[in-house]
Design goal:
The protein has seven helices and no strands. With about 120 residues, it is an all-alpha fold. The longest helix is centred in the C-terminal third of the chain and has 23 residues.
Length: about 120
């Protein structure tokens, strides 16, 4: 329970979430930000702080993450499951582009094995 009940409003929690959403490159990312909630579990907060610190180290000291495009392919996967339906060229390209980004990020961390252990665990 959060006390007082208007603490998140006073802290500007929604304003911070809106600021974060401005940096998201996909609707999926913005949806994930919308799901962010207040946390009080020390271990969980500590884990996220370690991940955040590693992301900061990447931004400050390393090459940027190779994220070119990232589409929400959940809807495309649902569509592909329906018998008799087919994906359009653009939809297949979205899946291809997303997979290229995923594989590039995996390679990025594989090339830096042990350097970002909290992000590698993701």
């Amino acid at each position: 329970m959060i006390y007082p009940q208007n603490s998140l409003q006073k802290l500007g929690f929604d304003d911070i979430k809106n600021s974060i959403k401005n940096f998201c490159i996909s609707e999926m990312g913005r949806g994930m930000v919308d799901k962010m909630q207040f946390m009080s579990n020390y271990d969980q907060i500590n884990k996220f702080l370690r991940q955040t610190n590693e992301f900061k180290n990447i931004i400050v000291n390393d090459q940027p993450l190779p994220i070119q495009s990232f589409f929400d392919i959940k809807k495309l996967a649902e569509k592909a499951r329906i018998e008799g339906t087919f994906l359009s060229e653009d939809e297949v390209f979205q899946i291809y582009s997303s997979l290229q980004t995923v594989f590039a990020v995996i390679k990025y961390f594989a090339d830096r094995e042990g350097q970002y252990p909290n992000l590698e665990a993701l």
